[in-house]
Amino acid sequence: MQHILIVEDDIAFGTMLQTWLRRKGFEVEKATSVGAAVKLLTGTFGKEVDLVLSDLRLPDHDGLRLLAWMHEHDINAPFIVMTNYAEVQNAVLAMKSGAADYIAKPVQPDILLQKIKDAMEQNAQQSNATTQNSTTQNAPTAHNSKFKTQSAKLTAPRHIEGKSEASRQLYSYVELVAPTPMSVLILGASGTGKEYVAHRIHDLSARADRPFFALDCGAIPRDVAASEFFGHKKGAFTGADTDKRGAFEMANGGTLFLDEVGNLSYEVQVQLLRALQERRIRPVGGTQEIPIDIRLVCATNENLEEAVGEGRFREDLYHRINEFTIYMPKLSERGSDLFLFADLFIRHANEELNRTVEGFDSAAAELLASHSWPGNLRELNNVVKRAVLLTRGNKITTAELTQAMGQIRTDNVLQLHDEDTERQRIITALQQTNGNKAKAARLLGVDRKTIYNKIEKLGI
Questions:
Q1: What is the average pLDDT value for the chain, to the nearest integer?
Q2: Whole-angstrom Cα distance, residue 284 to residue 279?
């Protein structure tokens, strides 16, 4: 039977958790302070404990003190932090210090149970790996090895995947489909990280050692689309001064990622379908066909089923690129992952701007959590970078965060400067929000009255 220690000063809540976890088959002890937890861990229970579930705010010390004590005494049981949204930034700090995970209050039982199982499983895998390494060399403990790796890493990772249930489900689908040859269609709003998911599919596939080539279909002028896809020969058209390899040839043997595939013209869709069916391409102006072997991953923020129904997207191509669909969750659907991403973006901004900002104060964290983030990760990244630039102290306050968020909204408003641009941006925003005018207004950074007036004026 696996043993869990709950450290929670709210006696009623702690007792409820203890009872519920015992019903799930765990042996559970509880403590109401760091001192009481230390006494339990220094006794027989300390040798049996498989996981510690601790609140951050405790009467004598905070949970980070207990976590540090466990490290000092080589107690390698995974440590999960419980916290409220305003303190999630401190939970992120705990994870930097070696905590396995965190969960926001009010605790959702199913999510907590999954986090407990995942943490125990990961700890068991690390222990097995450490044991195997020790047979060939005097390896450090799993805990010490982890900390040496972290301390040696001077730069922040470029990407993280998140810990929320939505993130777990997303990447479980990625791991499921990646080893297969199936074409994948990634659907989601702008700024949700579709290209990163495409990269992960490639990295986890049998083609990982082959090229990954990305092409933004929304940025290709119609008259050069064939050249971008299939390449061209010198002299094929005015300006073709040299031979050029197209996207299919560049990705040959690997993965071709077509972003914003819904923007392709009907003529290019026909050419793309033929290439996928025949697995052969012919460069513009060429006479010889080139065999191609690619794994296709596409992404769009459009409703392709609706586009098929309206005749804007070929149904046969839709089924060809959509053997498996992955839906990208919005940032607002990823719960406390918001703070993990915000913390990462602070680290990126610190490196880029040569700053030393540590995080958000509690009021700024609450403001961060209350915003809907219609621009998703891209908007969050931009806001955080601006806030880091504006911050003069160690932590971002509501003053800097409000100013950074206001600048984002101002930029959006300034882009609505002529009728053609306004029309297209409003139509795009309505498509991204499934026709919800209030959400479209937030996405554009204008109030609802403005967007209603614009829609009526422009006849949208």
A1: 84
A2: 16
Q: Is the peptide bond before 106 cis (omega within 30 degrees of 0)?
A: yes
pLDDT tens digit sequence for 139-171: 443 333 333 333 333 467 888 888 888 898 999
The contacts of residue 278 (CB under 8 Å, 6+ apart) are none
Name the pTM for this structure. 0.64
Integer Cα distance of 358 and 430 in angstroms: 37
Average pLDDT (228-246) is 84
Residue with tokens 């005015």: 238
CA proximity to 224, closest of 235, 240, 248, 241: 240
Task: Give the pLDDT of residue 460.
Answer: 82
* Residue 259 burial (10 A CB sphere; 0-12, 13-18, 19+): buried
Residue with tokens 């990634």: 186
pLDDT tens track for 56-89: 889 988 888 899 899 888 898 999 988 875 466 6
Distances (CA, A) of 166 to 161, 172, 202, 337, 373: 10, 10, 21, 10, 16
Q: How far is CA 148 from CA 95, 135, 155, 440, in A?
A: 15, 20, 14, 47
CA distances from 185 to 180, 260, 460 (A): 14, 11, 29
Nearest by Cα to 331 from 141, 170, 185? 170
Return the percentage of the chain with pLDDT > 90, whole number: 46
CA distance 174 to 315: 25
Q: Distance (Å, rounded) from C-alpha 69 to C-alpha 65?
A: 6
Burial code of 416-435, b = ≥16 C-beta within 10 A, e = fewer?
Answer: beeeeebbebbebbbbbbee
